[in-house]
């Protein structure tokens, strides 16, 4: 915008324009907008702009200078949960009350907080159209050498920030939608579990959904989707199972990378999002990772995490122990697959992944 719209550049240089992420815009309007609204962003959202120094939690002046971004247009960087409220909603506004605005988190970081992954080594995976796995690495950022993202997890008041490693998977639940909308093998997403349960395994078929390349940990834009291992034995039940298993295999790819980066083996995985109601998928996830997979009673943990951040700031919960007590488990899926079977299946998955590379020249 600054490079192509002259009026925006002029306003920015004069300090008459503001820039921020989505929550910056929401908070600004909630706290008054043009009439003195707070111009802030929390550390997790700021970290995703690639303009913030992960160590100092300040805007990086060198990057701003290289990109030609005036510092004055950027919001103040604040903790994710802040007892020093950034402002209050207007009494004559849509909420008809003055409510302190004091909690903000990025999407996946909110899910991390909602899952109460407050200890180093704890991890959560959110299953939606894609998957996003975050591992708490403590109060020191861990640079990734395995194709993952080093990011902020959260910060409470002026305490030391907590960092994460994140792995993003482009296509998981979206593959179920593709099976429904493009192939018509099912008429609604939940039907895939029943179809997959008509067979005992994938029949040797593997589906790598690299529809627009592969995200972490491969980062291969030249990859394209394939179904590998097809024989005349394979039927639509095997295809349905391969579709579900693809989410679990891609998650293991991320976990393998995280184990190498962090030096700590994952011991359990908390899960949330729309796909976690699929018990076949959750059991297979536990089997292929060889760790317990824990599903909470509240699966919409992103909204829960945002509520936790605000509630902690205003004293509704006194500390993170109160948040842990509020979190409750629905079901734990324990691994039940023989190790030889597990490693054979994962080896075949990796072989299928290799076949997706170098498709786009």
Report on the structure:
The protein is of the alpha/beta class and 361 residues long. It has 2 domains: 6-101, 2-Layer Sandwich (Nucleotidyltransferase, domain 5), CATH 3.30.420; 112-360, Nucleotidyltransferase, domain 5, CATH 3.30.420. The chain has 12 helices and 11 strands. The chain has helices spanning 6-14, 22-30, 43-47, 61-67, 107-114, 173-183, 191-196, 236-262, 279-289, 301-314, 320-326, 339-355, and strands at 40-42, 76-78, 123-127, 131-138, 149-154, 162-169, 206-208, 226-228, 269-272, 293-296, 329-333. The strands form 3 sheets. It has a 7-stranded mixed β-sheet with strand order 5-6-4-3-9-10-11. It has a two-stranded parallel ribbon with strand order 1-2. A two-stranded antiparallel sheet has the order 7-8. Helix 5 crosses helix 10 and helix 8 (236-262) packs across helix 9 (279-289). The protein is globular, with a radius of gyration of 22 Å. The two termini are 32 Å apart. The relative contact order is 0.13.
> According to CATH, what is the topology of the largest domain?
Nucleotidyltransferase, domain 5
Tell me about the biggest sheet? 7 strands, mixed
SSE topology string: HHEHHEHEEEEHHEEHEHEHHEH
What general outline do the C-alpha atoms trace?
Answer: globular
Low-confidence stretches: none
Q: How many extended strands?
A: 11
Q: What's the number of structural domains?
A: 2
CATH architecture name of the largest domain: 2-Layer Sandwich
